[in-house]
Amino acid sequence: MANHDFTRSNWCLGLVTGFVLGCGGGSAYEPTASLLVNWDIGGADCTDVGLAEVAITLSTADGEVDTVWAACQIRQYLFRAIPEGAYTVDIQAFPANSDVATHAGVVGNVTVRAGAENVACVAGSVAGGALATCSPIHLEEKAVDYAVAWKFRNGELCSTNGVDRVEVYVWDEHNRNVDSQSCSCDLSSAELAPGVPSRCMDDGMHFLLYAGNYTLSAQGWNLDAGSATFWADHKVAVDHVASPGAKLILEDCSSKPNTKLCRLTR
């Protein structure tokens, strides 16, 4: 298995009747209850989406209780000998030989009671082992925090080029506009209206994107002239491991015009 950053606690793993068993070691937990955790990936097999293993973390309001590992395709993990109480179950799924989780699922308010086999479900827990009526925790793809920065082809600064703001539009491979954002051209002074969470940071304009191919279209706006005077159009491939972001090259509309992105008045 991959060498992840999680610390494995004193649990033992075994394969029993089709699911993984965890057993507490030492005197860390009193043997009071069990909790069965199930997961799925929208009906797909783990191998179909390239997932090899999952990290399952149990936590309470006081903090993390334990993190264990299991093969993704097993789809079940049975915690034994855990204290009764209310838990949050967090599942992070990893491709083979990767330390980056690409899918995840979280469910809270999982109540564990002594004397019953408790099952973690998407709506909490079902006591008494009612697995048939319990929907598994769905593992969904995690979005990538993708930073888009820019510079000018002529090497000049925003102020020298008369560009006040840069607007970036994100198009997916089906030519659908999935997001857009406007930031100050000078990212060191980027800000939005008070009280509005800003995605404009000093390292770029931030988007949450899923793995795939995109086109980034940008306009550099001179607000006094009321028109776009610079532009960029760039194709990028986003993935979970090697996609920290992109840097766009802004072209001057006067020397290299673009009919779609230049001289559009507000």
With helices defined by DSSP (H or I, 4 residues minimum), what is the helix count? 1
**Low-confidence segments:** 5-29
Helical proportion?
A: under 10%
The major β-sheet equals: 8 strands, mixed
**Strand order across the biggest sheet?**
15-14-18-19-20-13-17-16
Strand content: over 45%
- SS-based structural class? mainly beta
What is the tally of beta strands? 20
Q: Compute the average pLDDT.
A: 83
What are its keywords?
1 helix; 2 domains; Immunoglobulin-like; seven-stranded mixed β-sheet; elongated; mainly beta; eight-stranded mixed β-sheet; 266 residues
Model description:
- β9 and β10 form a beta hairpin.
- It is built from one helix and 20 strands.
- The N and C termini lie far apart (55 Å).
- It has 266 residues and is mainly β.
- Residues 5-29 have low confidence and may be disordered.
What's the arrangement of secondary structure elements?
Layout: E1 11-16, E2 19-24, E3 33-40, E4 53-60, E5 63-71, E6 76-82, E7 85-94, E8 103-112, E9 117-121, E10 124-126, E11 137-138, E12 140-141, E13 144-152, H1 158-161, E14 165-172, E15 177-184, E16 200-201, E17 204-209, E18 212-222, E19 227-238, E20 245-252
Parallel strand pairs: 2-6, 3-9, 3-11, 13-20
Antiparallel strand pairs: 1-2, 3-6, 4-5, 4-7, 7-8, 8-12, 9-10, 13-17, 14-15, 14-18, 16-17, 18-19, 19-20
